[in-house]
Design brief:
It is an enzyme of class 3 (hydrolase). Monomer. Associates with 30S ribosomal subunit, binds 16S rRNA. This is Small ribosomal subunit biogenesis GTPase RsgA. By secondary structure, this protein is of the alpha/beta class. Helices cover about 30% and strands about 25% of the residues. It contains nine helices and 13 strands. The strands form three sheets. The chain has a six-stranded mixed β-sheet, with helices on both faces. The chain has a five-stranded mixed β-barrel with strand order 1-2-3-5-4. The protein is globular and about 70 Å long. The protein binds guanosine-5'-triphosphate and zinc ion. Zinc ion binds next to helix 8.
């Protein structure tokens, strides 16, 4: 048995890729078919073998980010995360529902969230209005927020300093600039992607997988490629309220605990709508996520 500790840098279907302490990559599989699947960021005990090594033990996870698959079953995305960095930009136009999903997820898992507003070179354009609306919400909720661009080394330095030593996961829509930020924080990232592709035997398929890179200044960075959906079926409906403090507060003023906010008398939600305190679009998103978590 050639057992040692390693970190999972990519988990994909029935195999994963681990990096040992000197950075060498090894393709491994879970020892038994029913064993839990390792995910990006896991620390594992493994044994070398040919053609693939074996994952013997997944060390206890500090946290596990999961997303519902197309049937709503939870699937592991990444583990042992210090901070979720949600990237938004003026272009592509931010998806408010996806932003809400990440707020809910970070609150439910108790993982600190940070908003990184990217492509500041486009921020003065009229198209940046939806991004500003998101910034105002984050400000109101007291969630930290930073701005920058790929072409602004000082801003990127501020991000480095604010998160030094942490394992970050970069999330957000496809095309917001996650790969560009990864490249800036980990200059060897594209080299590493080449090594990962070669070791995994998946060729360029790998670029669509969640991948962990060690940061030169300590800690690690996980680039989670664009997600079209991040279903939250596996969470409790109450978790959704974290992203909608105004709506959650209004429901507390409903006369009935089981108020459906329809025609019931003394409904806090209807009162909030009438008074203009509640944004009707936010209400729709809240209702949609509450529905989703009810399964
Ligand atoms: N204007 C502007 N464009 C940028 C900036 N950073 C990246 N881009 C461009 O945005 C596009 C998408 O960048 P990526 O880094 O590939 O985005 P991504 O979030 O990794 O996309 P996925 O891999 O699909 O999830 C590319 O054409 C980049 O050149 C920036 O600071 N300003
Ligand atoms: Zn009500």
């Amino acid at each position: 048995m050639n057992e040692s500790t390693a970190r999972v840098v990519m988990g994909s279907g029935d195999h994963c890729l681990v990096a040992d302490p000197d950075g060498s990559l090894h393709r491994c599989r879970p020892r038994r078919r029913r064993d839990p699947r390792p995910v990006c960021g896991d620390r594992v005990e493994w044994s070398a073998d040919s053609p693939d090594g074996w994952i013997d033990v997944i060390q206890p996870r500090r946290n596990l980010i999961e997303r519902g698959d197309f049937r709503g079953r939870p699937r592991g995305l990444a583990a042992n995360i210090d901070r979720i960095v949600l990237v938004v930009a003026p272009e592509p136009v931010p998806d408010a529902l996806l932003v809400d999903r990440y707020i809910v997820l970070s609150e439910a898992l108790d993982i600190p969230l940070m908003l990184w507003c990217h492509k500041q070179d486009l921020a003065s354009s009229a198209q940046s209005m939806p991004m500003r609306a998101i910034q105002r919400r984050f400000e109101a909720m007291g969630i930290p927020m930073m701005t920058g661009s790929t072409h602004d080394p000082e801003a990127l330095n501020r991000l480095r300093t604010a998160t030094r030593g942490e394992t970050l996961i970069l999330v957000g829509q496809s095309g917001v600039g996650k790969s560009s930020i990864t490249q800036a924080l980990v200059p060897t990232a594209s080299l590493r992607i080449g090594q990962i592709s070669a070791s995994s035997g998946q060729g360029r398929h790998t670029t669509s997988e969640t991948t962990l890179f060690d940061r030169p200044d300590g800690g690690a960075l996980i680039d989670s490629p664009g997600v079209r959906t991040l279903r939250l079926d596996h969470l409790q409906p109450g978790a959704v309220d974290a992203a909608y403090p105004v709506i959650a507060e209004a429901t507390r003023r409903c006369r009935f605990n089981d108020c459906r906010h329809g025609s019931e008398p003394d409904c806090g939600i209807r009162a909030g709508l009438a008074a203009g305190h509640i944004d009707p679009e936010a209400l729709q998103r809240w209702q949609r996520l509450r529905q989703e978590t009810r399964g």
